[in-house]
Design goal:
about 500 residues, mainly alpha, 4 strands
């Protein structure tokens, strides 16, 4: 309604619409459903109660609410109606559109299972009842119900064929009654096939046979009965058996299926002409699936062999260290007295002359470490401390380096990273002081004379022989300041 209406006016209009709900539904059911649901947001339970004396109008109202114009429901999924409303709608569908009950209960879940099952049983909607029984876990009960329905439909088909043959006057296959009866059998058969396929995956082989073989017998019944009296119908009736055979191939062994067909009393006499096409189709399907399985296994075996071979090459590949020093402490990885050759054992142990042996770690990246350096300085993390991204920002304990040259170069690295990385908790404060003093001494040893001081000394001492003395004087002058005159 328009926003210009006052709240009191809205209430009055809604009350008047509810009082004349029957007349509004007879005039325009779609507009009335939209008015109640979208504009008034009225309780559906109250609307259904007012329309209960007129079930046809009640069905049209709920059909517009749940189906809506163009199949779009008026009710929002965020605020579904109570289950009683859905159950009432299902009951009305059973009365006015029984063929659509099965599709509705399969596509919707906003109803109570037991109550809906009772409604479907009351109106004898077998396919919907079987589906609800399956949801409760009673697969055998659902199959038995559908199989009995299948038998009733087959009997109806046989009666239709008998009536058409008694009347004469043309081909039975062209009769409209025959085609409608055959379509009903096909529909029921499709429902049973879907039921068997949904539940065969969690059943044993014997339990699967208990489902599929009775269905096969029921599908072969019309074909076996009318093969002599109405041979022109055998081609149409053979489709029932073909559908079952093609659907059960993936769930029942082919040998069991063929044995079941050949042991049938109607085919044991040797008349296999009507079954020839079915059996050849089954054999072709089996051959195709066997070829597909063989090809898949061969490709899978090739891929596995290639993967294992690649992995074996990677495992057996030798690892060469980048250098002769440990990437953590800087000490030599192995020593060979007297220039004797050194070799790496298979266990990762350096062996050389003099009986010197020490375990080392060589990673695939080429970095090498002593075993103690990996287990102690890297807290037992057996991964390359340089290449590991998680440890890229962690400082290393470089204070145990032995070589003086390496100590100077590594000292610069520590100075550059000291501001970024926090010291480890286990480092003592006096060790930090020693590091700072060592860096200060290193900077002072590399400190050189300022070029500006040298030029100033040269300008005051014209004799080149006094250059060394001038440089000494400038080094002693620690308070040199550059004096700039303002630009005029």
């Amino acid at each position: 309604l328009d926003d210009s209406f006052m709240e009191i006016e809205r209430v009055d209009v809604e009350k008047a619409a509810l009082d004349h709900l029957k007349e509004l539904m007879e005039a325009n059911s779609i507009a009335t459903a939209k008015l109640m649901v979208t504009d008034f947001s009225h309780d559906l339970t109250d609307v259904i109660k007012r329309l209960s004396p007129h079930p046809k109008l009640e069905y049209e109202f709920l059909e517009n609410v749940f189906g809506g114009p163009g199949g779009v429901p008026l009710i929002k999924s965020e605020s579904p109606p109570p289950p009683e409303v859905h159950e009432r709608y299902i009951e009305l569908i059973c009365r006015y559109q029984p063929n659509t009950v099965y599709s509705y209960v399969r596509s919707n879940e906003n109803y109570r299972l037991e109550e809906t099952l009772g409604i479907c049983r009351k109106y004898h909607i077998s396919n919907a009842t079987a589906f609800l029984l399956e949801r409760t876990g009673d697969v055998k009960g659902a199959f038995s119900l559908m199989l009995s329905t299948m038998s009733k439909n087959v009997n109806a088909l046989n009666d239709t064929i008998t009536a058409c043959l008694s009347m004469g006057g043309g081909n039975v296959g062209d009769s409209e009654k025959f085609r409608m009866a055959l379509a009903t059998v096909h529909t029921t058969l499709l429902v049973i096939i879907q039921l068997c396929q949904r539940n065969s995956a969690r059943l044993e082989t014997e339990q699967r046979a208990e489902l599929w073989f009775p269905l096969l017998d029921a599908a072969m019944g019309p074909q076996q009965r009318w093969r002599t009296e109405a041979p022109e119908l055998v081609g149409l009736l053979k489709e029932l058996t073909a559908n079952v055979l093609n659907s059960m191939l993936g769930y029942v062994p082919l040998s069991d299926t063929l044995q079941r067909i050949l042991n049938d009393p109607t085919t044991s006499s040797g008349a296999f002409g009507e079954l020839k096409d079915l059996i050849m189709g089954m054999v072709d399907t089996y051959t195709y699936e066997q070829t597909l399985l063989t090809t898949t296994n061969r490709l899978l075996a090739t891929d596995i062999n290639r993967a294992i071979s690649t992995h074996r090459k990677v495992v057996e590949r030798g690892l060469a260290p980048r250098g002769v020093r440990c990437s953590d402490c800087g000490r030599r990885l192995w020593r060979s007295p007297g220039g004797a050759p050194t070799r790496l054992g298979a266990s990762g142990t350096s062996q050389g002359a003099g009986g010197l042996a020490e375990d080392i770690y060589v990673f695939s990246c080429g970095h090498s470490y002593h075993r103690d350096c990996v287990l102690t300085r890297q807290q037992g993390n057996e991964a390359c401390g340089i290449c590991n991204k998680k440890r890229s920002s962690a400082p290393h304990n470089w204070h145990r380096i032995r070589s003086p040259l390496a100590e100077g170069s590594v000292g610069l690295a520590v100075a550059g990273s000291a501001a970024r990385a926090k010291p480890k908790p286990d480092i003592k404060p006096e060790m930090q002081v020693q590091r700072v003093e060592a860096v200060s001494r290193l900077h002072s040893s590399f400190r050189s004379t300022s070029r500006l001081k040298v030029l100033q000394a040269l300008s005051t001492h014209s004799n080149p022989h006094n250059l060394s003395m001038a440089v000494g004087l400038t080094e002693a002058d620690e308070k040199f300041q550059l004096r700039l005159a303002p630009c005029r």
